[in-house]
Amino acid sequence: MNSQRITKCLFPAAGYGTRFLPATKATPKEMLPVLTKPLIQYGVEEALEAGMDTMAIVTGRGKRAIEDHFDISYELEHQIKGTSKEPLLREIRSVLNKCTFSYTRQVEMRGLGHAILTGETLIGNEAFAVVLADDLCDNRDEQAGVLSQMTKLYDKYKCSIVAIEEIPMDKTNKYGVIAGEEIEEGLFRITDMVEKPEPKDAPSNLAIIGRYILTPDIFDILRVTEPGKGGEIQITDALLEQAKQGKVLACKFKGTRFDCGSVDGFVEATNYFYEKSKEV
Ligand code: G1P
Fold first, then answer.
1. What's the CA gap between 273 and 65, in Å, rounded?
2. What separation in Å is there between the alpha carbon of 209 and the centre of ligand 1?
3. What pTM does this model have?
4. 8-279 to CATH, choices 3.40.50.410, 3.40.1350.10, 3.90.550.10, 3.40.640.10
5. 10, 175, 205, 248: which to mutate for ligand 1, most atoms within 8 A of CB?
6. Tens digits of per-residue pLDDT, 35-75?
7. Which of 147, 153, 174, 145 is nearest to 255 (CA)?
8. Degrees, nearest 5: CA angle 28-31-32
9. Which end of the chain is more exposed for a tag (fewer CB within 10 A), N or C?
């Protein structure tokens, strides 16, 4: 089971996006565009680049626009056929040709761990990737995207892996934070992890960003994981359990990541991708 290539990517996308109200009142936060492309499409393209072809999306109420986005709009295509606007749909059309999308709804908001468990029905008994679309990653100067870097490590180690980056110590309460022993340059075997600790309680300044590779035993662990920080079922707590039972790795990825769940990060990402678009 664990020797399989990773083909499925799960996108928890049920959250309300309250930090972006009123924009997210009737629009899913995953559909907010950086330039002309919605956040979730960047995530799907990163998964495609890593060789995945099955996108599994955990949605909630008010998220219909995501399904419509990853579908063909015949009316629109007919309307712009042969005009100068036609190329604007080329990228999304090519995404649709390369992968499938399936959806399930999280009917209660009980945390990221619960959202991932809700996705079990779309994943089954195999290792899979998780992308939190509001962490937007780019690999401008690197060969491979973050998920590609992680799947390569998975091929070698066959265990759950999280992506991490160094953060300022006063920001630890925004992230899952790990402690571990470095087994290769930039690769840690996790010995401890804490969800959103205050700086004084943080085991390090190595923060988990929204990219995970998970082995399917995580579902059984999540089923019995008690609510943790904020009264929610935390993937961080389930991963710590998995780390105690076996092995979980954390890799310092190469590339740039923007926290598009915050207005500051979103503006930074917009400026960055705007500059980048001018380069070509
Ligand atoms: C979630 C996880 C957290 C992780 C973060 C990355 O938190 O719970 O461990 O560091 O994503 O973006 P959220 O940002 O959804 O509150």
1. 23
2. 7
3. 0.96
4. 3.90.550.10
5. 175
6. 999 999 999 999 999 999 999 999 998 899 999 999 998 89
7. 145
8. 100
9. C
